[in-house]
Specification:
The structure is a single chain. This protein is an alpha/beta fold and 252 residues long. The protein is built from eleven helices and seven strands. A seven-stranded mixed β-sheet has the order 1-3-2-4-5-6-7. Strand 2, helix 2 (36-44) and strand 3 (48-52) form a beta-alpha-beta unit. Helix 4 crosses helix 5 (90-98), helix 6 packs antiparallel against helix 7 and helix 6 runs antiparallel to helix 8 (168-179). The chain is globular. The relative contact order is 0.16.
Length: 252
């Protein structure tokens, strides 16, 4: 039976404001290493931080609506007071859909390469990874995904040593299928809190068309960071941290 400790890691000041982060889809949960510079900064800034394995809770759910419902029920039970909601990629898509109902009260949201809307081009790219995953091998699908999240200035083919982690197909297929139906534009338009989207100028996946802040809202910002792909806090950590710091100062 799944334990909360299987999908959550904690850091920071237990008495501080609560920040919740939903991870991107990944073949194997890395315990928050995907965003360590941000975790360290939030902890140093006094936040109580919990990082969740997004796919770990909802792998096998039939669609994005069901996955969002599973996360909504879970967070209402385990995280009753969230001050800052953060989501990266697939986790960011789930987070934006949660802002409709269960987490509409959360005053601040940060999306990291998090699509508000999946257009036809992004669907095509995600489906290409899914085809390799299902029709060639777990290793082929994982290799293509790792290539896609790199900046488009880096054409080095990633290496997958040995066999892909157990469960790779189920975990990645869940996110790849569900992301293709992401559309939280009307939710974000109605969201009353402050919001920041960070994404890379050289992203092969999430780009400007997929980031849709509410129109006419000075407290909804999108920041395109140069020289990075889908992982700003790995590719350009100092610039990404600065964007978060500025946003949180202005949102106080």
């Amino acid at each position: 039976m799944l334990s909360i400790n299987d999908i959550r890691v904690e850091c920071g000041n237990q008495e501080g404001p609560r920040a919740i982060m939903l991870s991107p889809m990944m073949a194997q949960w890395d315990g928050g290493a995907f965003c360590q510079p941000l975790l360290d900064w939030l902890a140093n800034a006094g936040y109580s931080v919990a990082v969740y394995d997004t796919v770990g809770l909802c792998k096998g759910t039939k669609d994005l609506h069901e996955a969002t419902a599973v996360w909504g029920e879970f967070l209402l039970e385990h995280e009753p007071n969230i001050d800052l909601l953060i989501g990266q990629a697939y986790g960011g898509a789930i987070a934006q859909h949660l802002l409709a109902n269960e987490l509409a009260y959360v005053s601040k949201f940060i999306g990291i390469s998090a699509p508000t809307y999946c257009d036809s081009l992004l669907r095509e790219k995600l489906n290409g990874v899914l085809i390799d995953l299902n029709e060639i091998s777990a290793e082929a699908g994982l290799k293509k995904l790792l290539w896609c999240i790199r900046p488009d200035t880096d054409d080095t083919l990633p290496q997958v040593e040995g066999q892909a982690p157990v469960g790779t197909v189920e975990r990645l297929a869940t996110g790849l299928k569900q992301l293709q139906s992401a559309d939280a534009r009307h939710i974000i338009a109605d969201y009353q809190g402050s919001a920041l989207w960070i994404y890379g100028s050289h992203s092969r996946l999430v780009n400007t068309v997929n980031i849709v802040p509410a129109q006419g809202r000075s407290d909804h910002q999108s920041v395109k960071l140069p020289h990075c792909g889908m992982h700003p806090f790995r590719d350009v950590p100092l610039e990404a941290i600065k964007a978060v710091e500025t946003f949180l100062q202005e949102a106080m």
